[in-house]
Amino acid sequence: MCNDIEKVLIPKEEIATIVKNLGEQITKDFLGEELIVVCILKGSCIFFSDLVREIKLDVKFDFMVLSSYGNSTTSSKDVKIIKDLSENIKGKNVLIVEDIIDSGRTIKSLTELLMVREPKCLKVVTMLDKPERREVDIVTDYNGKVIPDEFVIGYGLDYAQNYRNLKDICVLSPSVYIK
Ligand code: IMP
Ligand code: MG
After folding, report:
1. Candidates 102, 129, 158, 168; catalytic one
2. What is the residue-averaged pLDDT of the chain?
3. Please, what sign has the CA dihedral across residues 109, 115, 119, 122?
4. What average pLDDT does the segment 131-139 reach?
5. Residue 126 vs residues 4, 5, 101, 177: alpha-carbon distances, Å
6. Exposed end of the chain (fewer CB within 10 Å): N or C?
């Protein structure tokens, strides 16, 4: 596994600071309100678990599974819901928790789809943002860190379902996917 890592991009100490700051901003913005925090599985699970503990509000958890990359490092154009929310979000404050925004297609489709359900407010927090790769216009409300156009693994992020349990966010060695 160590040979597959090109370098550490964001060490765990920096991740903790980023997540704490995001939690503080979210707490401030929703003071006195309830929030449904939506974890987009599987990539966001670790970020979600850390982030919700930095949000000092009444929160409820919900989970969604969307169609994924398969074993590729590039995005598919079609986003499908594999597992939907378990609660109705009409009139509720909803925060979508994403691991990374790449082309922007996943978050664009997802927000369009959830807006139809008439939440009181729908916001997006992402741990990472790769703006160089954007294919569609999207707005994120809370951004952890902007990163360059490199394929990253760890802190929940995978390549072919591996490396999610790395504590740091690392750049995957291209030798793993360029044969
Ligand atoms: P988008 O629809 O192209 O914005 O893709 C977003 C999804 O692609 C993320 O939720 C991740 O699951 C996956 N993804 C994009 N870039 C990376 C990466 O560098 N490492 C791991 N997964 C990635
Ligand atoms: Mg994802």
Report:
1. 102
2. 94
3. positive
4. 93
5. 25, 23, 7, 25
6. C
Tokens (6 digits) for 3: 């040979």
Q: Which of 40, 75, 103, 129 to mutate to test the pocket of ligand 1 (most atoms within 8 A of CB)?
A: 75
What does pTM read for this prediction? 0.94
Indicate whether 69 pLDDT > 60: no
CB of residue 92 inside a 6 A radius of ligand 1: no
CB atoms within 10 A of CB 82: 10
Q: Which residues contact 94 (CB under 8 A, 6 or more apart)?
A: 35, 36, 38, 114, 119, 121, 122, 123
Tens digits of residue pLDDT in 97-129: 999 999 999 999 999 999 999 999 999 999 999
Q: What is the token pair recorded at 38?
A: 């939506």
Cα of 23 from ligand 1 centre, angstroms: 22
Residue 40 has a CB neighbour count (10 Å cut-off) of 22
